């Protein structure tokens, strides 16, 4: 990616080097839940921690330890990607008379306390709608390259853009409506709604990539393929096969590799919000 001349967002909060005490309303995150979330990134932890309802966590006990320098390369990279998403979504929202509220990107290592509760690094990157923050332990990028076999800077940018996509859904009221439907739905229907939410976030990540590249030419040859590879790598079918040895479509929560690639491409090729209505799609 060509980000050398791009600005870095100031909406980055660095909590690396902090030790976080546990404390979650409703009992905290159990080890089984952590194992399940660890299979997928992009989960709205409010659904798991609080059953879909409002979540307000008590203050964490934090102690400052050794932290990476604020201007390390990884921090600069995510700050520039975040800035690019800010520019794109500010323009998209303004075109329909809306104001885009920028999320804060929280960097942490090991564990973090959010308004959605306590989370360990094993959960991967996540968006918390209760505080409108995106959380990421940058060590996840190593897992993305090794465990998920999706290396490259644009694969990393896709991960961040996907989480920002959840923020866009939250601002548009989509997340609230879907979570309301999920609370009243059976397991199979709730899973289908979750898949549609995640595929829409993939499509929104594609919109960001298309519009950012049209504006600033940030993509280099092979970058789009990196994003597609990352979307495919975290498909439910691939993860289930790796962890269970078989595929159970009814248990999908994020979509298959093919579906995730299809919707990312749809956003990337169209650059249009109207093309990302996964909830109206008869076939995913």
Could you please describe the fold and organization of this structure?
The protein is α/β, with parallel strands linked by helices and 284 residues long. The protein has helices at residues 31-38, 45-49, 73-95, 140-146, 153-171, 174-184, 187-216, 223-233, 236-243, 257-270, and strands at 12-14, 18-20, 62-64, 104-107, 111-114, 117-120, 126-128, 133-136. It has a domain at 71-110 and 121-276. The protein is 48% helix and 10% strand. The strands form three sheets. The protein has a four-stranded mixed beta sheet with strand order 1-4-8-7, with helices on one face. β5 and β6 form a beta hairpin. α7 packs parallel to α10 (257-270).
Topology (SSEs and partners):
Elements: E1 12-14, E2 18-20, H1 31-38, H2 45-49, E3 62-64, H3 73-95, E4 104-107, E5 111-114, E6 117-120, E7 126-128, E8 133-136, H4 140-146, H5 153-171, H6 174-184, H7 187-216, H8 223-233, H9 236-243, H10 257-270
Parallel strand pairs: 1-4, 4-8
Antiparallel strand pairs: 2-3, 5-6, 7-8
Helix pairs in contact: 3-5, 5-7, 5-8, 6-7, 7-10, 8-10
Structure classification: alpha/beta
Mean pLDDT reading: 84
- Give the number of DSSP strands: 8
The best one-word shape is globular
Rg (CA only)? 18 Å
Compute the number of helices: 10
The end-to-end distance, rounded to whole angstroms, is 30 Å
Percent range of helical residues: 40-55%
């Amino acid at each position: 990616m060509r980000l050398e001349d791009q600005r870095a967002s100031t909406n980055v909060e660095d909590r690396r080097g902090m030790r976080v005490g546990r404390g979650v309303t409703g009992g905290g995150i159990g080890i089984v839940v952590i194992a399940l979330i660890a299979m997928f990134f992009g989960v709205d932890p409010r659904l798991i921690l609080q059953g879909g309802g409002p979540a307000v966590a008590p203050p964490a006990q934090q102690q400052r330890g050794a932290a990476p320098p604020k201007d390390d390369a990884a921090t600069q990279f995510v700050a520039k990607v975040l800035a690019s998403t800010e520019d794109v979504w500010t323009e998209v929202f303004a075109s329909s008379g809306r104001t885009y509220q920028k999320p804060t990107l929280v960097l942490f290592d090991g564990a973090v306390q959010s308004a959605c509760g306590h989370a360990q690094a094993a959960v991967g990157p996540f968006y918390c709608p209760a505080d409108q923050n995106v959380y990421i332990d940058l060590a996840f990028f190593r897992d993305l390259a090794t465990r998920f076999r999706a290396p490259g800077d644009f694969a990393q940018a896709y991960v961040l853009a996907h989480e920002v996509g959840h923020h866009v859904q939250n601002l548009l009221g989509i997340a609230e409506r879907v979570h309301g439907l999920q609370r009243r739905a059976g397991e199979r229907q709730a899973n289908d709604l979750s898949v549609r939410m995640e595929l829409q976030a993939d499509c929104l990540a594609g919109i960001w990539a298309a519009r950012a590249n049209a504006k600033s030419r940030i993509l280099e040859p092979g970058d789009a393929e990196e994003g597609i590879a990352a979307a495919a790598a975290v498909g439910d079918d691939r993860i289930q096969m790796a962890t269970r040895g078989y595929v159970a479509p009814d248990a999908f929560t994020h979509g298959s590799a093919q579906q995730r690639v299809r919707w990312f491409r749809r956003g990337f090729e169209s650059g249009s919000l109207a093309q990302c209505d996964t909830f109206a799609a008869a076939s995913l």
